[in-house]
Every structure is written in structure tokens, then in C-alpha cells.
């Protein structure tokens, strides 16, 4: 049934979102904007432009054009300095099994440097395409990230499955007209109701993906 699988990165492949959230909170504080980690989790999946716009607007401010790159650089530095992310148990072995049977891609809202560094470290030589938040004009929940991933894989949308853990990511996949599996990591599963199926945890996800190999092959 499916020929390609597209994964979100943070919270699906790598337990890295706590370090993203901490980095954003610290950087916004430098610009005089109070943000909680919970607020960051609620908009997980947005690229840096979206995140900056959301919280500047909440603060009643408008970011100057040259602030986007400056904030991104600071956020990236905070993340890299404090990052202690780990791969979710069993996911690397699962993706090694999927490799060669499906085309595999990542569609993340994080910046290119962070995404590629995490994938190179935890999932070397696994993915056929990686789409970062810097590779699109419109981040999640816009369908562009998943549309770009499908194009990179050279497949049709109906032939691709998306795995997401964030409401904006699920919305992005559904806006692209794609089948989406929800996996609650940092939010309750009820937040992912727009997904076609919501699994309990990564253990269930690994079983689900393993079953796909038997069904589709």
C-alpha cells in the first residue's frame, strides 16, 4: 500500500524537544519576551519564522526583518550547547529494517543544521530526503513541508505515510492530503485527533511499522 514513510524528527525519531523548548525560552528572554516551555510544546512543528512571529505577536511586538536570523543563530547555539537528546528505544533498529523496503524521509520544523546533525548522529545513511524548517517558505501546519518531502522522494502522496507527534504536524500532513499516524510524546493523544490513527507510544509505533513491512511486501 505505501511506498514511502515520512517522519517528523523531534519527538518521533529523537527525544530532543525538551532542549528545543529550553533554548527558545532562554532566547526569547534575551529579547524581553516571557515564554514557557509548555507554550513551545503547543506549537511544536513550526519553523523558526513561525515561532518568532507567534510570540512576538503575543507580546504585542513586531520583529525587525534582521532579527529572524539573529534569533535563529542564538537559538541554535543554545540548543547545541545544552543538547542531550537521545534516540527513542528501538527506533534506529526499526528504521534500519525499513530501509530498502520503503523510501524514507524526514520533514522537520527545526533548522537545517540541527536536523542534519541529529540525523547524522542517530540515523546515519537512513534517509533518502531531509526537509528542514529552512527548506520551506511556509512551515507546519501548512502542507508545504510534506509536499516537499513527497517531491524529494519522487512518489505520490497516496503512496506515503506520515508519522507525527505534534498537532501542527498532523494538521500539515492532513492539509497535504496524506495518511497520518499520530504518536503522543509530549502532549496527550487527544491532541492528535486529526490523525488517521493514534498509537499509544513508540513501542506500538515499532509494531505498526513492522507490520507494514509484512503487509506491503
Automatic annotation (TrEMBL):
Q: Name one Pfam family in it.
A: HAD_2
Q: Which InterPro entries match?
A: HAD-like_sf, HAD-like_SPP, HAD-SF_hydro_IA, HAD_2, HAD_sf, PGP-like_dom2
Transmembrane domains' residue ranges: none
Gene Ontology molecular function, alphabetical: sugar-phosphatase activity
Domain of life of the native organism: Archaea
Q: PANTHER family given for it?
A: FRUCTOSE-1-PHOSPHATE PHOSPHATASE (PTHR43481), GLYCEROL-1-PHOSPHATE PHOSPHOHYDROLASE 1-RELATED (PTHR43481:SF4)
Q: Which family does it belong to?
A: Belongs to the HAD-like hydrolase superfamily.
Protein name, as recorded: Haloacid dehalogenase superfamily, subfamily IA, variant 3 with third motif having DD or ED
Organism for this UniProt entry: Methanolobus profundi
Amino acid at each position: 500500500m505505501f511506498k514511502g514513510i515520512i517522519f517528523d524528527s523531534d519527538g518521533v525519531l529523537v527525544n530532543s524537544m525538551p532542549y528545543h523548548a529550553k533554548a527558545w525560552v532562554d532566547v526569547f528572554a534575551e529579547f524581553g519576551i516571557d515564554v514557557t516551555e509548555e507554550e513551545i510544546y503547543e506549537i511544536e512543528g513550526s519553523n523558526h519564522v513561525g515561532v518568532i512571529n507567534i510570540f512576538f505577536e503575543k507580546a504585542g511586538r513586531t520583529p525587525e526583518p534582521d532579527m529572524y536570523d539573529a534569533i535563529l543563530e542564538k537559538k541554535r547555539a543554545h540548543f547545541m550547547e545544552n543538547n542531550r537528546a537521545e534516540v527513542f528505544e528501538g527506533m534506529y533498529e526499526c528504521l534500519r529494517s525499513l530501509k530498502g523496503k520503503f523510501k524514507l524521509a524526514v520533514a522537520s520544523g527545526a533548522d537545517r543544521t540541527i536536523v542534519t546533525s541529529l540525523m547524522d548522529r542517530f540515523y546515519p545513511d537512513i534517509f533518502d530526503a531531509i526537509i528542514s524548517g529552512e527548506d520551506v517558505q511556509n512551515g507546519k501546519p501548512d502542507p508545504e513541508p510534506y509536499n516537499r518531502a513527497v517531491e524529494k522522494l519522487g512518489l505520490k502522496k497516496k503512496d506515503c505515510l506520515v508519522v507525527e507527534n505534534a498537532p501542527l504536524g498532523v494538521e500539515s500532513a492532513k492539509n497535504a492530503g496524506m495518511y497520518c499516524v499520530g504518536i503522543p510524546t509530549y502532549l496527550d493523544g487527544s491532541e492528535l485527533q486529526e490523525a488517521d490513527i493514534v498509537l499509544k507510544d513508540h513501542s506500538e509505533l515499532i509494531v505498526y511499522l513492522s507490520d507494514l513491512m509484512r503487509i506491503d511486501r
